Amino acid sequence: MSNKYVIRWKSKMNGRTGQGTKFFEREEADRLVEELNREYPQIHHEIAEVEVEELPQEQPVEQAPLSNETNEAPLLSIA
């Protein structure tokens, strides 16, 4: 497992909170938080450390067969 960071935020107007789903390295998260707090002063942004499990290697996607018996692409009509 490795440590990554997400952006957590809280509205100064109504108290609503949330947390982003994109993972960042520490330096990138710090820069983004500074930028977001400058551009959106009504929302307080901060970084939150999360543990991320290593993702398994991507498996190849199996393609579905074409719809007709001859394995030709379906014809499109121009209407």
Give a verbal description of the structure.
The structure is a single chain. With 79 residues, the chain is an alpha+beta fold. It has a domain of 51 residues. 18% of the residues lie in helices and 29% in strands. The chain has 1 helix and 3 strands, in the order ββαβ. Strands 2-1-3 form a 3-stranded antiparallel β-sheet, covered by helices on one side. Strand 1 and strand 2 form a beta hairpin. The protein is extended and about 50 Å long. The protein starts with a strand and ends in a 27-residue tail after the last strand. The model has no long low-confidence stretch (mean pLDDT 80).
Distance between the termini: 54 Å
Shape designation: extended
Q: What's the alpha carbon Rg, rounded to whole Å?
A: 22 Å
Mean pLDDT: 80
Taking pLDDT < 50 over at least 5 consecutive residues as the criterion, the unreliable ranges are none
Order of helices and strands: EEHE
Q: Strand tally, please?
A: 3
Helix count from the secondary structure assignment = 1
Q: From the helix content, strand content and strand pairing, which structural class follows?
A: alpha+beta
Helix fraction, binned, reads 10-25%
Q: Biggest sheet, in brief?
A: 3 strands, antiparallel
Spatial strand arrangement across the major sheet: 2-1-3
Strand content: 25-35%
